[in-house]
Design a protein that fits this description.
single chain, four-stranded mixed sheet, three-stranded antiparallel sheet, 5 helices, 36% helix
Amino acid sequence: MHTVSAILRRALLQHRSPVAVEEIGTLHTVRSGARFLSGQRLDPPRRMPELVASEAGDLPLAGLVAAELSVDASIAEEMCREWLEGTYAQAAVNGLPAGSLFLEGIGTIQADPERGFEFFADPELLEMLNPLPAEPLVVPSPARRPMPGPQPGYPAYGGRRRPPRRRPKGKNPHNYTLSVFAVLVVLAALGYLCYYLWAHTDLFSAFLPR
C-alpha cells in the first residue's frame, strides 16, 4: 500500500479532521445512530467514510502527510501528486470511467458526467469501522409471565389480592372489671378527701358540725 493511502486510511479509522484531496473533494468519517426497522429489527450504529465538497478549514492531504512523516511541505506535495497519478492509472486498469480514482485500502472514487464523483468504500475499511454485524439485529419480544391461578382463601380476580375478612373481636370481661375497680378507687379517694377537710378545717362546719 502506498504511504499516502496508508496515512489517509489511518485518518479515517481514527475519525480525525476531514481531509481534502486536491481537485476531488474531502474525505471524512460520519456516524449514524441505531434505527428501529420493521419486524422488531434494529439497525446498529455505523461509521461510514464519505466524500463531500471541500470547505475552508478542511485539512489538505499534503499537510496531513507532512505532519505524519515530519517532512517539508514541498516533499509532501510531491508525494501526493505521485500518489494521485497512481490512483488514476490503477482506476483505468480496473476498467473504471475516465477521471476515476482507485484508493487502495480506502475505496473507489468513480467519475460520473452527471453526478460528479461517487465514493464507494472498501469493504475491509467498512469492517474495521464497524465491528458489529452489518445485518440488522432482531430484537426479541419481552417474555410474558403467566398469571398466577386462584389461591385458596382468595377470590379469583385481577389486581391486588383482597385480604381475608376478620370477625370483630368480642368484648373482654376483664375490661369491665377494671373499669368498676377504677371507679371505686376514685370514690374512695374523694371520700377520704372530704373527711380530711371536715376533720381539720371549717369548710363543712355549716353543714356537718363536729
